[in-house]
Amino acid sequence: MGFFTGLVTLPLAPVRGVVWMAGVLTEQAEAQLYDPGRIAAEMQQVADEVASGEITEEEAAAREEDLIRRLNEGRARGL
Q1: Residues of 35-49 as b/e, b for ≥16 C-beta within 10 angstroms?
Q2: Is the pLDDT of residue 11 over 90?
Q3: Are 33 and 27 contacting, i.e. CB atoms less than 8 angstroms apart?
Q4: Crossing angle for the helix pair 57-77 and 13-33, nearest 10 degrees?
Q5: Alpha-carbon torsion 34, 38, 40, 46, what sign?
Q6: How far apart are CA 16 and CA 10, in angstroms?
Q7: pLDDT digits (tens, 9 = 90+) for 29-79
C-alpha cells in the first residue's frame, strides 16, 4: 500500500476495525455453537430433564434433533 493510498483510505480504518471485530466474534460464536463437548453436555441436560419430568419425550426429541443437526453442521464446516 502506497503512501497516497494509505492517506486516502485512512478515514475507513475504524470501519475496517469494526468489520474485523465482527468477523472474530462470529468465529467465536460459531465455535461455541458447534462445539461437540458443549453439544454433548446439552444432550445430557435434555436426558436429565426427561428423567426428572421437566420436559416431555416429544420436547426432548425435538431438542435432540436440533442438537444432532448442530453437531452435523459443525462437522460439515470443519469446526
Answers
A1: beebbeebbeebeee
A2: no
A3: no
A4: 130
A5: negative
A6: 10
A7: 999 999 999 999 999 999 999 999 999 999 999 999 999 999 999 999 887
Amino acid identity, position 28: Q
> Coil, strand or helix: which one is 69?
helix
Q: Is 53 left (phi over 0), alpha (psi -120 to 50) or beta?
A: left
**Cell numbers found for residue 3:** 503512501
C-alpha cell at 2: 502506497
In total, the chain counts a number of residues equal to: 79
Determine the residue type at 4. Answer: F
Please give the grid coordinates belonging to residue 9: 483510505
